[in-house]
Amino acid sequence: MDTTMKKLPPKPVTAKSRAIKWGGWIISIAIIIWSCTGIDFGGIKPTAGQITGAIFNGLFHPDWSYVYNGSGEDLVSQLWQTLCIAFLGTFISAIISVPFAFWAANTRHKKFWVSESGKIVLTFIRSFPEIVLALMFIKAVGPGAPAGALALGLHSVGMLAMLFSEAIESLDDGPAEAITAAGGSKFNVAVFATMPDLMPAIVSNTLYRFDVSVRSASVLGLVGAGGIGYPLIIALNYRQWSRVGIILLGIIVMVVVIDWISGAIRKKLV
Amino acid sequence: MSATDRDMLKLPKKKFKMWNWVWVILMVLGLVLSVNNTKTSLPEFFANFDQFAEIFVQMAQPDWSYAGTAIPYLVETIKMAIISTVIGSLLAFVYSLLIARNIVHNRAITGVLRFIMNIIRTIPDLLLGSIFVAVVGIGPVAGILALTVFTFGVVVKLFYEAIETIDPGPSEAIKAVGGNGINNIMFAVMPQILPYFISYALYAFEINVRASTILGYIGAGGIGLQLKNTLDMFNYNQTGMIILVVFLVVLVIDFVSTKAREALMR
């Protein structure tokens, strides 16, 4: 049998593409090796395996008595507070986001630097750590749920306004021009052309942000800004693993249900 | 003008949409309930606004001499992000192949594995961090583990959806000439999905850099620990410096990674 026929022809490779490929590999591997140096990998507690086992044990044998005991400190009321923080935070941020979105949207009728400056401000708000914001609000309104809601409300603007401004950029100019042509004022344009077109995008993005906010709100309690995070950190510190288990289960169920509901609503909207 | 003509000039009435009103009522109800539950009062906030503003003003005057202290911690943070992105996305790579329905045809296996993935995805990064701090103790290892799990959750979801949208043609061709499952993955699936994989890993890296900067706050290594220390000691000038360097690094990394992803997808 003729074996030469079985060989595939070599792939066409130019020197440039080979250089890019090898260069990419070498640089990435160098970066990965560099990042492994100088990190203190020691110091893992000898009890790590035991604690992991205890947490899993707690997940499968949760402390059911904590679910509801009417004291206001139980799982259900803490989760409800977390949801309320997320809702209020999202509501506040949706309102603040609208003017920011119009500032940052790069439409035809605007100078380039106006929208660019808006975009930079939004990036700054996005990368300002939520926890620092929560601590600043704790200084202003005291520890508890209000600080969490306000911090979420301000932090979410960074992402929500960016999503809104993308929706504004993709708006159709037609309706607005039609209203201007028929003698409508700027206010008329906003009320009859821009807002109706924008509403589905606003609602859908706000719902999406609500999903994210629920996750954030369950974390803010770690710094004392209300919600389920605080009982969780207490239970972790006091090694009450069955309580850690029930709180984790509660968070997971809450997030899954909220994701499911908002996903269903968003599917209907589109 | 007759009465009928005048009627013609009127615009037709909009249909009464009951659902819109139901939504408005639900929103208002939710607002009232959540304000009541959290006991938020905006007047109180504005009354104490000077305290809030004072911290902000101090942060706006960053302590430049502190940059020398902050940067080594920032480097450690970035290293943590790199390690966990690599490990997490490699795990996600294997896992995505297992839950993509055009590669593993057994619905029971993909269903169970997807359920596990969805559970992992629900846990926020800081919660993962605090659990791992409780498990392995304070230090960067806890942060790396938390970010690894987090990266896994981010990449796996995006990546398995990308795998499911690939062109089945090359796979069928390999099967037609007698290739086995490994051949199929190596020569038909991989070439199609590798650019997506790298792009999603870079995207996860962007998120990780941001997330790792605050993980230290709960003791999981990196610059977050300094963030906590400066805040606890009311050194807001130094906090401002940390936030500034983090912001600059995030900007640079976002820019580089966005450009790299655009180049990959071209």
Q: Using the CA coordinates, give the radius of gyration of chain B.
A: 26 Å
Biggest sheet statistics of chain A: none
End-to-end gap of chain B: 64 Å
Class per helix and strand makeup of chain A: mainly alpha
Radius of gyration of chain A, CA atoms, in whole angstroms: 26 Å
* Low-confidence runs of chain B: none
Q: What overall form of chain A do the CA principal axes indicate?
A: extended
Sheet having the most strands of chain B = none
Dominant shape of chain B:
flat
Count of discrete structural domains of chain A: 1
**What is the tally of beta strands of chain A?**
0
What is the third-level CATH name, the topology of chain A?
MetI-like fold
Count helical runs of chain A.
Answer: 10
Helix % of chain A is over 70%
The greatest interface between two protein chains, and residues involved on each side, is: A-B, 64 and 60 residues
What CATH architecture of chain B do you see?
Orthogonal Bundle
Which sequence of SSEs, written as H and E, runs from N to C of chain A?
A: HHHHHHHHHH
What do these coordinates show?
- Chain A has 270 residues and is mainly alpha-helical.
- Chain A has one domain: Orthogonal Bundle (MetI-like fold).
- Chain A contains ten helices and no strands.
- Chain B has helices spanning 3-9, 18-38, 42-47, 49-59, 67-99, 107-122, 125-136, 140-164, 169-176, 181-215, 224-232, 236-265.
- Chain B is mainly alpha-helical.
- Chain B has a single domain (69-265), classed as MetI-like fold (Orthogonal Bundle), CATH 1.10.3720.
- At the A-B interface, helix 1, helix 2, helix 3, helix 4 and helix 5 of A face helix 2, helix 4, helix 5, helix 6 and helix 7 of B.
- Chain A: This is Phosphate ABC transporter permease.
